[in-house]
Every structure is written in structure tokens, then in C-alpha cells.
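Hello K.,

You asked for the raw outputs rather than the summary table, so here they are, unedited. I folded two proteins back to back in the same session to keep the settings identical. This is the first:
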Amino acid sequence: MPRSWVGWCLTVFSLIAVLEASEGDADPVYRNCAQLCEKTGCVKDNCFQQCNFTSSGDRLDGGQYLQEPLYLQWKQWDCHSDCRCHCMLSREEERQWLGHKPAKYHGKWPFLRIYGIQKPVSVAFSALNLAMHFHGWISFFILIYYKLALEDNRKAFYEFTGFWHIYGMLAMNSWFWSAVFHSRDVDPTEKLDYSSAVALLGYSLILAILRVFNVKIEAARIMISAPLIAFTTTHILYLNFYTFDYGKHLV
């Protein structure tokens, strides 16, 4: 009886793993390619130096591992990730030749990386958004403090100045981490990107309510902001320390 329960549990867990896997990484051809690559260090004619070293940094032939310069180590392209990337691209070429549609791998669509950047177009648009928000924040600063009249203590007459400064900082922070995440998609950059985006969205909702209803009383501002800040903070903690659902945050 215990053996049958063990077999049943293993079957259920195997089915759960298959259901959670994307179409691409569940493909046996892709899986075999990745496993073979990590053993041989090559995908077809492409071979990777990272696969010739052990996890301790020693060469498989007994030599010593030469560390990459610090400015290159941020990429974190190790044997495992290089094999996944090139096997994915190789398999997608085969699927395209067979007339199949692109498939997701590990929950994400395949992209061709350029100079170590995984999604060059996304990086370019994120950087452009960052530049536009920086330009907008500088323009707002100049308008408030150099073109409009100020109070005697050099304080701006516009009562929402501080709120817009915070919004500008959060927006620039969000687009900065978006560019970093699309450059190299690893767990820390993904969490920083989505956490920054959630913080920006939560604060945007607070600012929209305060501005639309022209809330000027400090106590009322706190009463509106406090629960929304608590909800946003809780959601960020949930994403970072409980579970991160990539699909639910694509919109």
C-alpha cells in the first residue's frame, strides 16, 4: 500500500511539472539539446568557454579559470544560460522551417540577443522612456523654481510640487530597472523591474486621486494615501518573498 501511494504521488508531481512547463521547454528536442550542451559545451557549431570550467572555477583539463573583467561579469552568462539560449534559438529555427508558430521557453518568448543584451528593442524603448521622463522632470523643476513666482521662503506656490517630484523619481527608477531587466533577465533584475513598476502604479493612483479631487488638507491626504501605500507595499513583498506570477503582470 505505501508503495502505491508513493507511485501515485510521483505521478501527480510529474503531471504538475509538465502542466507548469511552457511549450518550448517541455519539448524533448530542446531538453536533449540543453542537456547535451552542458556536457559537451557546444550547440551545433557554437561552443562556449564557460562550459569548460567546473562550478569552482577549475578547468576540466586541470587548468585555472581566468575571471572575466568586472564590467563583463554583470551579464552572468554561464554554461547553463548559454546552453538554454542557443538551444532555444536552434529549436526555433527548426520549428520555423517546419511551419510551427514560436513557442514560449520557461514562460517567456524567445529573443535573439545582441552583444549580450537579451531584448535590444525593449532596452532601447525603456531607455527612451527614461530620457523623456528625465527631460520632463527637469522641465518641471525649471518651470516651478525659475519661471513661476515663489513665496518669500523660496517655496513654490503650487501645492502639488512635492508629489510630482516623487512621481518623477519613481518613474525614472522604474524605466531604469526596465532597461536593466531587458538587458539581462535574471531573478534579481526581474524582481527589481516589477517591484519598481508596482510602486510607480500604486503612487500614480494616489496622485491621481489627490489631484483630481484637489485634496489639500494634510489629514485627508494621509487618510487616502495610507491604505494604498500599505496595499502596494504588501503586494511588492508578496512578489519578492512569496510567489511571482510572470503572466499576471504582463498587462
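The second followed immediately with the same parameters:
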Amino acid sequence: MNSMESNQAQPNLFCSPEAFQSQRTLNPYVTGTSVVALKYKDGVLMAADMGGSYGSTLRYKSIERMKPIGKHSLIGASGEISDFQEVLRYLDELTMQHNMCDDGNSLGPKEIHSYLSRVMYNRRNKFDPLWNSFVLAGVKKKPGVDDKREIPWTGYYDRSAVNKLQIANITEKGLTISQPYSLKTFWGFSAFQNPTAGAQGS
């Protein structure tokens, strides 16, 4: 076989149908860390830092990971940022379609939770999961019913978090998300100077 025949026998990967097939996210690339939520008497507080890590590198420091959903719900996400953006697109379409009904009703946290659980389950069954964990909070009161959805956390620390964060508050009266702000840090503690002091084998 001469060189010309050899070249013709090799498929052109850039022009083959396989090159244009949809690909699956095998591993998350840019990820956010933990979301903290706490229930109190009148509603739910939620907090998340604004870091986005590329592997172990803190690549982005201004990523918002909490978003309002309709009038009564708030979602926070950890995990793959692009997958979170895709979920927000789904939720925007859901709320827009619901608003077009113009029937005086509005989606509450119970309905949003049901929808999200179906979306996540559907994607897992397709072996194309959304690489996220969500915290959904909301307050929607009906006569005789107190509907609050939250996951309470206290005293949690994440080594990948940054000191820039936002805090959200949702009550029956409405929802607010603070402007980003930074916490003061101090690295002068003696334990930081020699962190392995006293450790086994040091």
C-alpha cells in the first residue's frame, strides 16, 4: 500500500459524524463550594461564597450561586457552575410558562422542589447527570399551612471557600440577596506559621 492509499484509509476525524455528536460531562470543571441555609421564625437565611475553582485552583472570585425563583423560592447551588446555569434556564422557562397561564397562582418551593427532583432523576437515568447539589428555600403560606423548605446547617467550614460572599433572606414578605462583600481575614496566628508543629512524624 502506497502512502496515498494509506492516507485515504485513515478517516478524517474533524469531518466525521462522531466529531459532532453531543458529549457528556464526565467530570465537573469549574465548581462552587458549599451553600449554608438556616431556618428561623419568619423565614430562611442562606449564604454562599463566590469562589469558582478550576480543579484545585481558585480561578473565579465573583460567581453568584444563589438565585430567586419566582416570588416564593430561592435556590443555592454547589458543584459545576455551567450545570447550575443550565438548571436556571430550565427554571426560567418553567416560571415563564406558569406566568403565561395568568390564573393568579404562583409556584412555591414545594412545586419547585418536585420539578428539580424530576429533572435530576431524568438526567441521571440518561447517564448525563447534572453535577450539582442544591439547597432550595422558600416561604409560601396558605390558610392553615406553613410551607417552608430548607436545609439547616451550623458551624460548617469548607477549605475551598473564599472570604467573598452573599447572604439571602426569604420571608413571607419577599426575598432579598445582599450585595457581595468580603470578610476580614487574619493570617498572623502562630498556628499558621508552622502548621505541622507537633504533628506525628514532623
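The two ends are 64 Å apart (CA to CA).

Happy to rerun anything if the numbers look odd on your end.

Regards,
P.
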